[in-house]
């Protein structure tokens, strides 16, 4: 028997990201209706935000998105 491939919708939307007590321009990454992470653009780099704190920095947005998806898949 073969499995049917499920189509998963991943969406990257512009968003206001809260880091500590400040708001920054950034992105919200969603899979389906669930937001799996936030990315803020700080000083020309992209920071993954967890619990309003900076978790890690990346030079490219694509790398930050890949890391969020990887972390989400490993946590399942």
TrEMBL record:
Pfam families: DUF2969 (PF11184). This is DUF2969 domain-containing protein. It comes from Streptococcus hominis.
